[in-house]
Amino acid sequence: MASEEEVEAPKGRGRPKMDPSEKKTPAAKKAGAGTKSKSPYNVFLKTEIPKLKEENASLSHREAFKLAAKNWATSDANPKNQ
Q1: With contact defined as beta carbons under 8 Å apart, do 78 and 72 qualify?
Q2: Per-residue burial over 59-76, b = 16 or more CB atoms within 10 Å of its CB, e = otherwise
Q3: What is the helix (H) or strand (E) element at residue 55, kind and residue range?
Q4: Scanning 13, 17, 46, 53, which has its CA 20 to 30 A from the CA of 38?
Q5: How far is residue 6's CA from residue 45's CA, in Å, rounded to a whole number?
């Protein structure tokens, strides 16, 4: 059996660790890329859900979301209704 001094730790396993200063931030990956604009549906939901919860505080978020989705079908904000 070999003594402890002769046993070497395995070398070169996996990818070497990256220096944290070299990591790219999401903004650096796509320099100059703008933010994605929200769809009319998402804009409508963002305003409609709080309105529904204000009218009926006992509504769960899920129920308010369902009502808002139904309201979208007849909303003037819906491009299909214009």
Answers
A1: yes
A2: beeeebeebbeebbeeee
A3: helix 40-55
A4: 53
A5: 67
**pTM (2 d.p.):** 0.56
* Residues contacting residue 67 through CB under 8 Å, at least 6 positions apart: 52, 59
- Find all residues with CB under 8 Å of 59, minimum gap 6, and list them: 52, 53, 67
Q: Exposed, middle or buried by CB within 10 Å (0-12, 13-18, 19+), for 10?
A: exposed
Give Cα 53 to chain centroid, integer Å. 23
Which residue has 């299909």 as its token pair? 80
Q: Give every residue of the chain whose pLDDT is below 50, as ranges.
A: none
How far apart (Å, rounded) are the C-alpha atoms in residues 58 and 55? 9
**What letter represents residue 74's amino acid?**
T
Q: Is the dihedral of CA 15, 20, 26, 27 positive or negative?
A: negative
